[in-house]
């Protein structure tokens, strides 16, 4: 078993990635609304979602996100509700594929540890992604962080604590694997877990070199997870 009794994973951008590109979604959203782009995909990614107000629907999340982007870049927020609605219509949330090395990493963990999933997002949408990936039954504990169902999103400690209780695992012997520093690393550390941060590197935005708090382990890809375990 080694250092850990249990390993928990984030889903989006950790185990899976969207098949629709950010650029494709961005262009389709503004085309649907009939506007020239007010901001870029990189501007959207620059917003830390953990700083946004709690959203109870995908549409509400996009409204919060786009208002924050407009504030950052000095754009007129008048069309934010239209952009949010268009995004819900354009994005296929269930169009996902495994991130490179993620399937192998998950299989390796399942052979040796109790395994959990702690993911922001509603149960229906996230479960559809798991079905598409063929891993709906891969976890010993699954926690969907959805305020509409009374579970606060990461980095709140509640979802981590729920997973630990289901796994009957002590936090100090549990590793959490995720791509988001603000949601995954911060949340895991607040709940007493160790963290393996696997940021998804994009061509137009590099992850911070010295984030605070520092993750327990920083990985360049999911294939490096074996070395941590």
Furnish the topology, listing elements before pairings.
Blueprint: E1 6-9, E2 16-18, H1 22-33, H2 41-45, H3 58-73, H4 80-90, E3 96-98, H5 102-112, E4 114-120, H6 123-133, E5 141-145, H7 158-167, E6 174-178, H8 181-190, E7 194-197, E8 217-218, H9 225-228
Parallel strand pairs: 1-4, 1-6, 4-5, 6-7, 7-8
Antiparallel strand pairs: 2-3
Question: What is the β-strand count?
Answer: 8
**Largest sheet descriptor:** 6 strands, parallel
What radius of gyration results from the CA coordinates?
Answer: 18 Å
Shape: globular
Quick overview:
The chain has helices spanning about 20-35, 40-45, 60-75, 80-90, 100-110, 125-135, 160-165, 180-190, 225-229; strands at about 5-10, 15-20, 95-100, 115-120, 140-145, 175-180, 195, 215-220. It is of the alpha/beta class. It has a six-stranded parallel beta sheet with strand order 5-4-1-6-7-8, sandwiched between helices.
Detailed description of the structure:
With 229 residues, the chain is an alpha/beta fold. It contains 9 helices and 8 strands. The strands form 2 sheets. It has a 6-stranded parallel sheet, sandwiched between helices. Strands 2-3 form a two-stranded antiparallel sheet. β4 (114-120), α6 (123-133) and β5 (141-145) form a beta-alpha-beta unit. It is globular, with a radius of gyration of 18 Å.
């Amino acid at each position: 078993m080694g250092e850990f009794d249990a390993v928990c994973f984030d889903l989006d951008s950790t185990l899976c990635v969207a098949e629709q590109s950010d650029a494709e979604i961005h262009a389709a959203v503004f085309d649907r609304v009939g506007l020239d782009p007010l901001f870029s995909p990189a501007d959207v990614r620059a917003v830390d979602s953990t700083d946004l107000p709690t959203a109870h629907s995908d549409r509400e999340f996009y409204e919060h996100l786009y208002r924050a982007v407009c504030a950052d870049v000095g754009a007129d927020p008048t069309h934010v509700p239209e952009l949010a609605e268009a995004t819900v219509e354009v994005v296929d949330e269930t169009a996902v594929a495994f991130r490179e090395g993620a399937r192998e990493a998950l299989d390796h963990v399942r052979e040796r540890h109790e395994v959990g999933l702690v993911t922001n997002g509603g149960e229906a949408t996230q479960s559809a992604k798991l079905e598409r990936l063929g891993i709906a039954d891969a976890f010993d504990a699954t926690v969907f962080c959805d305020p509409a169902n009374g579970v606060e999103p990461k980095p709140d400690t509640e979802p981590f604590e729920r997973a630990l209780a289901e796994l009957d695992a002590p936090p100090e012997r549990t590793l959490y694997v995720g791509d988001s520093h603000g949601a995954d690393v911060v949340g895991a550390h607040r709940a007493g877990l160790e963290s393996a941060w696997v940021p998804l590197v994009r061509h137009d935005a590099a992850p911070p070199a010295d984030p605070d708090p520092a993750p327990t382990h920083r990985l360049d890809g999911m294939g490096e997870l074996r070395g941590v375990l």
